[in-house]
Design brief:
The protein contains two helices and eight strands, in the order H-E-E-E-E-E-E-E-E-H. The chain is of the alpha/beta class.
């Protein structure tokens, strides 16, 4: 090989090796967590919003069937993670710190949503008249009711 060709090959390979390290560095971190109920069961399809408190970062993702959510390429800083209220559970917000080239764990436990319900139980149900002095059980069977019964063939006789 000629001397010029070796020199050009050395320059190109040095350039490729040095630029590979530049592209290999990440400028952000990641957030990964699991949404669970108080008993430890996972909650699938929960909407998770990640909001940067120090920067203008805002992203909403949904947890998968195993209750896991992942967000990549998150700039470093302080964040609030809010899990929206879903049927039977209250909304929950936690604060985390994201560091460059690290995955921050954010496992979130939702509390059961309690609601006050008033139920009135009365002694006189609406629309029902009960005669408490008469104890006989009676049903009137009409000819039309007997005619509407299904007819089965009789295979044997007594």
């Amino acid at each position: 090989m000629s001397r010029n060709f070796r020199l050009i090959l050395l320059i190109i390979s040095s350039f490729l090796i040095l630029t590979a390290n530049v592209f290999g560095q990440r400028s952000g971190g990641a957030i990964e967590g699991t949404i669970k109920d108080p008993q430890g069961a996972v909650i699938p399809n929960a909407n998770v919003t990640i909001t940067g408190t120090s920067i203008g970062f805002n992203r909403t993702v949904q947890s998968d069937g195993n209750g896991v959510f992942k967000v990549q390429q998150v700039p470093p800083g302080n964040y609030k993670i809010t899990v929206a209220s879903i049927s039977g559970f209250s909304e929950r917000t936690v604060e985390i710190l994201v560091v460059v080239e690290k995955t921050t764990a954010a496992d979130i436990e939702l509390s059961v949503n309690s609601q006050a319900v008033n139920v009135e139980v009365g002694t006189d149900p609406i629309g029902v008249n009960v005669d408490s002095t008469d104890s006989k059980i009676q049903t009137n069977i009409t000819a039309n009711l007997i005619e509407s019964l299904p007819k089965f063939p009789v295979w044997f006789r007594f």
